[in-house]
Amino acid sequence: MECSKEVSVLSPVGNSLGSEIHFYPSVHITTHWYDHRLFYLLQVIKVYSEDDTSRALEVPRDITARDVCQLLILKNHYIDDHSWTLFEQLTHTGLGRAIEDHELVMEVQSNWIMEEENKLYFRKNYAKYEFFKNPLEPRHLQFFCEFSNSDMYMSLTGKKISGAPTNYGFCFKPNKSGGTRDLKQLCADDEQTRTCWMTAIRLLKYGMQLYQNYMQPYQGRSGCSPLNLTPMRRGCLRLNSHGSPVAMSNMAIHRSQSWFHHKISREEAQRLILQHGLVDGVFLVRDSQSNPKTFVLSLSHGLKIKHFQIVPLEDDGKLFYTLDDGHTRFTDLIQLVEFYQLNKGVLPCKLKHYCARIAL
């Protein structure tokens, strides 16, 4: 039976059904193919954001993780800074991993057990290729298992399910295994050691493919580049006397910023930073739980997460914010963040990458 349907796809130029049809990212086309042929070419996947909202995408069966990320970047007008990641979360076993850019998404999903509610998340991970910028030095690497038919996951639940002695666990899961029985689990003493081992194993398994993923800018299946896209700007700002953007109300303008997270706990802040990768300079600003009138800057440095209290000061009837007991003062949190993005000051490093809840 012949059908007519409008779809949005990301696919190569040309196809086996005819030489005059060309697909481009986010271009709507009307198809007049037979049902079984359309089903063969396209599959529906569901991708989640951090707030567990989701978007269904019709994609080719041979689409890679990087293609999916690029499609979502284009659809949402995000800036492609080479840190976007498709993250696989196995709900039943409490495991998760960043899918490598070159991996086929359909092959990843083919290893899922039907009854399990596994998910794909679209998020940032600044640590994905950090080892090419700041190489690690893993030692004492020995043969443990065959990697060709297994994938490596980090533990998302700490000691709860595995009973590991620390919270820094990772494991190898055979592709066709759904439960915990066949997992080969390892445990590290700290996050730095876990990152070192997982990076070494990624390099051992994928080798030069990882370096090619890192070095080659994304060109898309049709040569389309996101560099010509103009990022969406939200909110209405004005410039102060120093040229910094400031909103009409200094008291609440920070709430519209992507780096600010309203009323989240210390543990939730650490989880968000960990998801974005423990790279120096990954940060967020949040409300203080212990003191409702203050704020907290949570910052990653040296593979650890540190928290700095932002204290409001009143001087001559004017309100200021400071990180260093008033030696450096700012009229609002936006000025404070902008300053420490350019200057280390009292912090162990500059603010480089902010944690944001990604919307789809």
SSE diagram, text form:
Elements: E1 5-9, E2 13-15, E3 18-22, E4 27-31, H1 35-41, E5 42-48, E6 54-60, H2 65-76, E7 84-90, E8 95-98, H3 105-110, E9 119-124, H4 130-133, E10 150-155, H5 159-162, E11 168-174, E12 184-188, H6 191-206, H7 208-215, E13 238-239, E14 245-246, E15 260-261, H8 266-276, E16 282-287, E17 295-301, E18 304-315, E19 318-322, H9 333-342, E20 353-354
Parallel strand pairs: 5-9, 15-16, 16-20
Antiparallel strand pairs: 1-4, 2-3, 5-6, 7-8, 7-9, 8-10, 10-11, 11-12, 13-14, 16-17, 17-18, 18-19
Structure description:
The protein is an alpha+beta fold and 360 residues long. The chain contains nine helices and 20 strands. The two termini are 34 Å apart. The protein has helices at residues 35-41, 65-76, 105-110, 130-133, 159-162, 191-206, 208-215, 266-276, 333-342; strands spanning 5-9, 13-15, 18-22, 27-31, 42-48, 54-60, 84-90, 95-98, 119-124, 150-155, 168-174, 184-188, 238-239, 245-246, 260-261, 282-287, 295-301, 304-315, 318-322, 353-354. The protein is 22% helix and 29% strand.
By DSSP (H or I, 4+ residues per run), the number of helices equals: 9
Per DSSP, what share of the residues sits in E-state strands of 2 or more residues?
25-35%
Whole-Å distance between the termini? 34 Å
Q: What's the Cα radius of gyration?
A: 23 Å
What is the N-to-C order of secondary-structure elements (H for helix, E for strand)?
A: EEEEHEEHEEHEHEHEEHHEEEHEEEEHE
* Average pLDDT metric: 78
Beta-strand segment tally: 20
Specify the structural class. alpha+beta
> Percent range for helical residues?
10-25%
- Low-pLDDT parts are 1-35, 222-249
